[in-house]
Amino acid sequence: MRVLVLGGYGLIGLEIVRRLRAAGHELIGLGRSAGKGRSAAPDVRWIGADIATLTTPHAWAAHIEGVDAIVNASGALQDGARDNLRAAQQDAIIALIQACAGKAIRFVQISAPGAKLDARTEFLRTKGVADAAFRASALDWTILKPGLVISANAYGGTSLLRMLAATPFGQPLVLGDARVQIVAASDVAEATLLAVEGGTLSRRDYDLAAAGAHTLRDVVGKFRVWLGFERASLRLELPRALGFFLARGADLAGWLGWRSPLRTTALRVLADGITCDGAGWEAASGRKLKSLDETLAALPATAQERIYARAQLVLPILVLTLSAFWIASGVIAITQRDAAARVLDGALAPEQAMVLVLGGALADLAIGLGVLVRPFTRIAALAAIALSIAYLIGATLLTPQLWADPLGPLVKIFPSMALALGVAALTSER
């Protein structure tokens, strides 16, 4: 079969793409960047398109030509600079349903437990509207609703669990008593394969979650053991208000292009509990869903996992520190421009020195602000390194005496370059 997978290089989508490909199906992946798709799965044909812009049946026509089945594994947690939930999860999918009317196309919708028209988060409401549109259509559809997905690919909730588990010494948690049920990403991919291949699974909703709910505290504790970290010597139950305060900061970062898994939507969903009943799927499919212990046992917990978990834990601190350093440098240069220009006395004319100081200050500010905007973070970090090298060369030629300055203004450039290099490395697109 020729299968189109929407969101094909995402957390769930990539697992589905690989499973369907291994089963011998012809795959077409659709995501914002065809280049990222080819990097993740080079043996798949990729279409570069933003689903949020495909809100009419006509916009979908070329993409579904000759397709036998469609899997919608796309989605976003919350509105932000790069995400429009209503457009991507509701309007575009309704338009796709209309475009598929009258065609012999099988559809698998990856939804979520609690997705319904009156859900209290837009994430679940928009999923619920799309689900309802499938049920009202004449299409051959199956709706799968996975619980908290555990995957080898660290992204979203699985990334957050790794980060929380990497906290040294104590284990701070908000909503530690929240109840969650998990499902292995491999089980979601297997369920999708069975749904794509049809049979008696059509025109039904299925929850996908292993039996037995865990507290968030227990899940994070198991992740600590799995990653090889020491058990937490101290448990810190943080107030819910503090968690939502931090989440609102992450919401603001979302409008700068950051996709933190710690958003208010995530906390609200977690507060309500991520629970469902996978017994219906197990009975219909004859397949048992893996438990949390079985899922973790099947995934490698290597040194790379531990490095990633710790690196992602400190990444926000690194980004904010790098940004603050360059913004402060620019502000100080502007407010103390006369003193800064006097450092160049004898090397340049006063007018030239002032132009150099103000130009450098503006460049510093641009880098500091650019670091905060996710699409430009890596570019800004590399620009910080380049500008630092330029400062070192210029200072060596014009004011070599600064190398012997007791406060070491030139020597201190090297740690800032190392910081920028770390941010550039950690913010490469997945």
Keywords:
430 residues; alpha/beta; Rossmann fold; two-stranded parallel sheet; 17 helices; 13 strands
What order do the helices and strands come in, and which of them pair?
Layout: E1 2-6, H1 11-22, E2 26-31, H2 34-40, E3 45-48, H3 57-64, E4 69-72, H4 85-100, E5 106-110, H5 122-136, E6 140-146, E7 148-150, H6 157-165, E8 170-173, E9 179-180, E10 182-184, H7 185-196, E11 204-208, E12 214-215, H8 216-227, E13 234-237, H9 240-254, H10 264-272, H11 279-285, H12 292-297, H13 303-335, H14 337-342, H15 350-372, H16 377-398, H17 413-426
Parallel strand pairs: 1-2, 1-4, 2-3, 4-5, 5-6, 6-11, 7-10, 8-13
Antiparallel strand pairs: 9-12
Helix pairs in contact: 1-7, 3-4, 4-5, 6-8, 6-13, 13-15, 13-17, 15-16, 16-17
Can you give a write-up of this model?
The chain is α/β, with parallel strands linked by helices. The protein has two domains: 2-301, NAD(P)-binding Rossmann-like Domain (Rossmann fold, 3-Layer(aba) Sandwich); 315-426. 53% of the residues lie in helices and 13% in strands. The chain has helices spanning 11-22, 34-40, 57-64, 85-100, 122-136, 157-165, 185-196, 216-227, 240-254, 264-272, 279-285, 292-297, 303-335, 337-342, 350-372, 377-398, 413-426, and strands at residues 2-6, 26-31, 45-48, 69-72, 106-110, 140-146, 148-150, 170-173, 179-180, 182-184, 204-208, 214-215, 234-237. A seven-stranded parallel β-sheet has the order 3-2-1-4-5-6-11, sandwiched between helices. Strands 7-10 form a two-stranded parallel ribbon. 39% of the residues are buried. The mean pLDDT is 93.
